[in-house]
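Weekly structure sync - notes
Attendees: PM, LS, DV (DV joined late)
Agenda: review two folding runs queued last week.

Item 1: First target. Sequence and structure tokens pasted below for the record.
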Amino acid sequence: MAGEFVLLSLGPSPFGMRVNIALAEKGIEYEQKDENLFDKSPLLLQMNPIHKKVPVLIHNGTPICESLIIVQYLDEISKDKSPLLPSDPYQRAHARFWGDFVDKKVHPNGRRSWAAKGEEQESGKKELLEVLKVIEEELGDKPYFNGETFGFVDLSFVPFTAWFYTYEKVGNFSMEAEFPKLVAWGKRCMERESVSKSLPDPHMIYDYAMDRRKIFLGE
């Protein structure tokens, strides 16, 4: 099966991390090819001509794009092992809602909180904190977002815990002080081999982010 799956990704990408975790949860062997987004490979441009971005999962030569869609695809083709989405239609829709919420709210505001400066950066930080508060309230006192088991929402959000250090370092706040339940949940998720082996060192993420910041701001 190893030759059937190829993942085009980028180490610091939380979206790529999602696919890494899903593949590990499903026990699927694959080949990973890391992309340079400043010099995109012909394979990436061929497999994702619309968005030209990672991650892209190539299964038997056929591409599947967009991380949440890839995760759902993997869940559908291997339903017998570690199901990620609930079987109940309402709960499944609820999980998809929160995965979409993470993409639309956490990622853009998190990016502004470290990649911008001045009022734009402060605005990004403020909105990020508000969004994280909403997510923590959704988690509540449950071990995982789905209750007792690790699932789709956990997988969708947990890659961003690798970025927590960058958020708090640049934003000058403490994640543990502001969001103790999220931090505890993140540590709980890291006890899973699929997560711990898929998430890079937060300090590496910070160094990467600061390099990107210099490029974005022309510093």
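Item 2: Second target, run right after the first with the same settings.
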Amino acid sequence: MINNIFWYDGELIHSQTLELNINDPGLLYGATVFTTLRVYQNSLNSNLTNWQAHCDRLLFSVQSFGWQQPNWKHLRQGAQILLPHFPILRITLFPDGREWITGRLLPQYLTEKQKNGIFCATASSEFYRSLPSHKTGNYLSAWLAKTSLNAQEAILVDAQGNWLETSTGNLWGWCDRTWYTPPLTAGILPGIVRSQLINWLQNHQQQVREETWSVELIQRFEAIAYTNSVVEIIPIHTVYQPSGSLQYNPYHQSFQLIRELFLA
């Protein structure tokens, strides 16, 4: 496996360092947008890789911010060159249209976490993501939320204590024969897997409700999990919070249908 290669501004670079101008807004302010995708079947054309959805996410942010569009041909060319070496690609865009693509391996112990679940802790409400509709390079609050807690993941909350999302993914809960996920209006990232799952579940006659995760609702859930394009779905068996811990069933049968999506 080659770890010291990446794609930057139309070129394949063999290095572990990237040189940026000291006045680059991406360096000074985190002025970048990015998306992280998992390559399935060694192909950008796989439905599960969902290449177009990731490009659409980038385009939405670029247009919203009035930035220069990248060379989309270069973007795909770089991803195509790196994908034989890495199952995960992170694609970053700068305001002037430069593209930067890096690769990495699947997270350690991912299969075990998918099977047995993880424990989380709720973060302070000060750790909210800015511009939550966009995946910007300024990810400091989410990073701090996760690294400051003695937990495997952090759950971000609003000022009222409602659960929003984890530091890296979207939340899902099961009760009353229904899947629940927080609404986009709560101020969360519109995850690509989140959209996939809503469509997938509804096409399989499963009830899905976008509803605020209040204190009352989270206590009703039999099972909860989080999703993103890298880990697929990971159950959460314990959530530590100042008022006490909550326990959920990481082996709940409701997860089986969702797992089938990633086997398609």
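Discussion on item 2: Residues 110-261 form a domain with the D-amino Acid Aminotransferase; Chain A, domain 2 fold (CATH 3.20.10.10).
Action: LS to circulate a short write-up before next sync.
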